[in-house]
């Protein structure tokens, strides 16, 4: 059962404890609010200001699990705080561990400070959970995907359009890389894991993956430089650094260009063009 009073109090106190700079927002010279404004938090939670305001006022509909998860992420809650929020809202907290999708406050704080850099937070299955604006401009909004198509590895083997973003000479290696990584995950997580289910689905649809699977190659690791072919600004050679959250098996990927290089200039152009230059996200069955 929902605890409306407790939920409203917890939401208000957590919102007031967050500062604009904590979530990558400018403070502004005339700001008087001690924490985030309701409308600012509503944007972070991907919901209307009216909906969020009613929750803080102990009224409105019973929030769904999806809504509670969005609020927990927008408030940059820890796992313990997230679980408390779910219980206040009358829901059982999601399972913790490698299959969870709640991004840690630490990774979010770093991502929020990378507004001028392509970056994303992904699960171990290659599902994009969060992106910076320049990350969206680089690869498209991958957070809109649903079902198995959320995984880059699944799309790689089932959607030819996915490969168009990468240099053709890299395709063979990337196929081996995704096959190797998925095989390692299935062994690590077990036959009843999400990794195993994803492997089963992808193997059923891709002859190429079946061939690579039979080769039983493991231990491949991504190359330090990723070579993209952007449909608007052209070829990009980007170094990729990663930071891992071991508790959730989430990875923050940050893409950078050599200063003064042609790629750096093209990246600056992409930053100016923004989301309007993002590659089109074609629907993938799944």
- Number of DSSP helical runs: 13
Indicate the CATH topology of the largest domain: Beta-Lactamase
Listing every helix as H and every strand as E from the N terminus to the C terminus, the arrangement reads: HHHHHHEEHHHHHHEEEH
User: What is the domain total for the residues?
Assistant: 2
Report strand %. 5-15%
Beta-strand segment tally: 5
- CATH architectural label of the largest domain: 2-Layer Sandwich
CATH class of the largest domain: Alpha Beta
Shape: globular
The value of Rg in angstroms is 20 Å
Structure classification: alpha+beta
Q: Strand order, biggest sheet?
A: 2-1-5-4-3
Describe the structure in brief.
This protein is of the alpha+beta class.
Keywords:
286 residues, alpha+beta, 434 Repressor (Amino-terminal Domain), Beta-Lactamase, 2 domains, five-stranded antiparallel β-sheet, 13 helices, 5 strands, MLTR_LBD, Helix-turn-helix domain-containing protein, Lambda_DNA-bd_dom_sf, DNA binding
Could you walk me through the main structural features you see in this protein, from its secondary elements to its overall organization?
44% of the residues lie in helices and 12% in strands. The protein is of the alpha+beta class and 286 residues long. It folds into two domains: 4-88, 434 Repressor (Amino-terminal Domain); 105-277, Beta-Lactamase. Strands 2-1-5-4-3 form a five-stranded antiparallel sheet. The protein starts with a helix and ends in a 13-residue tail after the last helix. The mean pLDDT is 92. It holds the Pfam family HTH_31. This is Helix-turn-helix domain-containing protein. InterPro entries: Cro/C1-type_HTH, Lambda_DNA-bd_dom_sf, MLTR_LBD. It comes from Geodermatophilus nigrescens. Residues 35-82 form the HTH cro/C1-type domain.
């Amino acid at each position: 059962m929902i605890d409306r009073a407790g939920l409203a109090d917890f939401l208000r106190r957590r919102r007031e404890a967050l500062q604009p700079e904590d979530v990558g927002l400018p403070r502004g010279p005339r700001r008087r609010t001690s924490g985030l404004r309701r409308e600012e938090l509503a944007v972070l939670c991907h919901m209307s200001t009216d909906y969020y305001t009613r929750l803080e006022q102990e009224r409105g509909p019973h929030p769904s699990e999806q809504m509670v998860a969005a609020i927990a992420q927008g408030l940059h809650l820890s796992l313990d705080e997230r679980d408390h929020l779910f219980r206040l809202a009358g829901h059982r907290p999601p399972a913790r561990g490698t299959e969870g999708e709640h991004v840690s406050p630490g990774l979010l704080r770093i991502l929020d400070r990378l507004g001028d850099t392509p970056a994303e937070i992904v699960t171990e299955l290659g599902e994009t959970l969060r992106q910076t604006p320049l990350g969206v401009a680089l690869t498209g909004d991958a957070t809109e995907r649903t079902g198995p198509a959320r995984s880059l590895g699944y799309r790689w083997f089932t959607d030819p359009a996915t490969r168009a973003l990468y240099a053709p000479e890299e395709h063979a290696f990337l196929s081996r890389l995704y096959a190797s990584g998925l095989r390692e995950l299935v062994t690590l997580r077990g036959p009843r894991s999400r990794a195993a289910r994803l492997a089963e689905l992808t193997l059923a649809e891709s002859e190429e993956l079946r061939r690579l699977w039979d080769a039983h190659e493991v231990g491949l690791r991504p190359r330090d430089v990723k070579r993209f072919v952007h449909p608007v600004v052209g070829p990009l050679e980007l170094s990729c650094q990663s930071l891992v959250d071991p508790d959730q098996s989430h990875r923050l990927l940050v893409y950078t260009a050599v200063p003064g290089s042609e790629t750096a200039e093209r990246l600056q152009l992409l930053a100016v063009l923004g989301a309007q230059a993002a590659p089109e996200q074609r629907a993938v069955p799944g």
